[in-house]
Design brief:
about 260 residues; eight-stranded parallel β-sheet; 9 helices; 8 strands; Aldolase_TIM; ComA_synth
Length: about 260
């Protein structure tokens, strides 16, 4: 089908408009079937939490993702486990052997000093594309808006390709309230001052995804997307769902303001 006027989507080896899925143990055969149909609308694949360490057929999975042009990486929890046990060099060496070219530096479970995270990023950038996550998985820990902005800007200045806003796979911490609602005031401030093309917003449910699509546009970067939701998400991005039906080519104004960085 190619006759409707829809919001223009980025395509190919996208730099923004990314869909980053979370793989929490999809069996290899099932994954192959999913990617045969939907691989073209997936850009990044996070092998969730620390599951890569115990995943059967891990090398085959990594190779399969790469065959479909999808960038695989390991969840930040595995990075933090390696940090806790002073095994970061071994971890990075293992990633290189596996052919993984992306690494996440996170702070979701441990309280890793900012200076140390920046030092690890500087070292990892010698061989990897680096993504840094901002925010805690503990919903009782609050960061001020200025702290969010400071960390995100420092990571981007340090050479990270993207920064991820913590949301967990449940959507109940980081950029979300305990009950799952989006901290819209925080998002409003972040998109004023930081290039949204460099932010991956964790949005684990269609409800969360619709918020960011309406707030920023069809080509917002979204992470922690469930594999079974990737076609729903692409439909939402294209204005093919009631909640995004009137989506325009550039961006909507869900936050009652114009974001500083357009997404055309």
């Amino acid at each position: 089908m190619d006759f409707l006027q829809l919001p223009k989507r980025t395509s190919g080896n996208r730099r923004y408009g990314l869909t980053s899925i979370a793989d929490f143990g999809t069996p290899f055969g099932q994954l192959k079937s999913i990617l045969d149909d939907y691989g073209h609308i997936i850009d990044i694949a996070k092998i969730g939490i620390g599951s890569a360490y115990v995943t059967p057929n891990l090398q085959r999975k990594i190779d399969l993702y790469k065959e479909h042009g999808i960038k695989p990486y390991c969840g930040g929890t595995l990075f933090e486990k390696c940090y806790q046990q002073n095994k970061i060099p071994e971890y990075l060496s293992c990633l290189r052997r596996l052919g993984i070219e992306w690494v996440e530096v996170s702070n979701g479970t441990l309280d890793i000093p900012l200076k140390e995270r920046l030092e690890i990023i500087a070292k990892a950038r010698e061989h990897f594309h680096v993504i840094a996550e901002v925010g805690s998985k503990d919903s009782s820990l609050e960061m001020s808006i200025s702290e969010w902005k400071e960390e995100m800007n420092l990571f981007l200045e340090a050479g990270c390709e993207y920064v991820i806003t913590e949301g967990r796979d449940s959507g109940t911490s980081g950029i979300y309230e305990k009950g799952g609602s989006v901290k819209s005031d925080l998002i409003s401030e972040l998109i004023k001052d930081i290039d949204t093309k460099r932010i991956i917003f964790e949005a684990p449910t269609p409800k969360h995804q619709m918020f960011f699509i309406n707030a920023i546009g069809a080509n917002v970067n979204l992470g922690n997307v469930k594999l079974e939701d990737v076609l729903i998400l692409e439909s939402q991005r294209c204005g093919l769902r009631s909640e995004t039906f009137y989506l325009e080519d550039c961006h909507a104004n869900h936050l009652n303001q114009t974001p500083a960085h357009s997404m055309e």
